[in-house]
Structures are given as structure tokens and as C-alpha cells.
Amino acid sequence: MIVADLYARLRAALPETVPVLRPEQVQVPAEWQEEDAQGELVEGGARGQLAYLQQQAPQGYVQVETPVPIRTDGLVASYAVAVATIAPDAALAQDLGLRVRRILCGHSYAPEAYRESRPAVAQPLQPGAWLYRPTYERVTLDGLLAGG
């Protein structure tokens, strides 16, 4: 339910040119193979995350990870979920990450249902790919999403 909520919020607010991947799609960028204009695989073409960034996500992409329970009292439970942004350079990864934070957390005068629990700093994954990976917290009440 948290993954579906995150996906819906991010997909509604981010441009279509920015892919939003669910936890089960974590391998999509790593397994990407270069395609031609007709969508056919290019023999001997580029592969992996850099090819994915070039062809599918030149402005970066969002990777939603699996929520992890962090505490409960039997009725109220809190979950931590990392929402990473990956982009061709540090500035793009961080800018996209900050957009995601505003979508999920809102502003002090109009808060949303998520709270950033672990901030991030852009880190290099490999030449041409940067990661910005904060963690957010979401509360459930009796198994249902609470708030916003």
C-alpha cells in the first residue's frame, strides 16, 4: 500500500519523461539494452544503467524501494522507505531528489503524509551516474495509511 501511494503521488507530479520505478523494477536499468528508433535492440549496443539513463531517463529517474517496518505498538506502525533518484550528474540527481521531497513531504505550511527521516547527499555510482537516496517515514493506523 505504501509503494502504491508513493508511485501514485510521484507519477502524478513528475513529468512523464522521468521514469518512476517500483521495487520490483530495480533491475530494469542494470539490464537495459540499447534500442534503435523503432524500439529494436541494437546488436552490440550499450547496456546497463548508463544506456538506460541516456535512452530512457536523461533527466534522471526515481527508484522506490521496499518499505521496512521500524516500529509498532500494535495499532500504529511506522515504515521507512528509501526513494532514490539517479541521474547523469550530481546536480540533476539532487535537484530531482529535492522535487521528490517536496512532493512527498510538502512544505512547513502545508505538510504531506511523509516525513524525511534520513537526508541524503549525492554520491557517485559510476562515471556518468549519481545517486541521491534519502529515507522517508510513513505511519499506518490499524494497517491503513494515516494522514494525507
Overall description:
The protein is α+β, with helices and mostly antiparallel strands and 148 residues long. The protein has one domain (2-145): Alpha-Beta Plaits (2-Layer Sandwich). The protein is built from four helices and eleven strands. The protein has helices spanning 2-13, 28-31, 49-55, 90-105, and strands spanning 20-21, 61-64, 68-72, 76-87, 106-107, 110-111, 115-118, 123-126, 129-132, 135-141, 144-145. Strands 1, 2, 3, 4, 7, 8, 9, 10 and 11 form a nine-stranded mixed β-sheet that branches. The chain has a two-stranded antiparallel ribbon with strand order 5-6. Strand 5 and strand 6 form a beta hairpin. The longest helix has 16 residues, at 90-105. The protein is elongated, with a radius of gyration of 17 Å.
Which range best describes the helical content: under 10%, 10-25%, 25-40%, 40-55%, 55-70% or over 70%? 25-40%
Rounded average pLDDT:
92
CATH architecture: 2-Layer Sandwich
The strand count comes to 11
Order of helices and strands: HEHHEEEHEEEEEEE
How far apart, in Å, are the first and last alpha carbons? 14 Å
Number of structurally distinct domains: 1
What is the assembly state of the chains in this entry? single chain
Q: How many individual helices?
A: 4
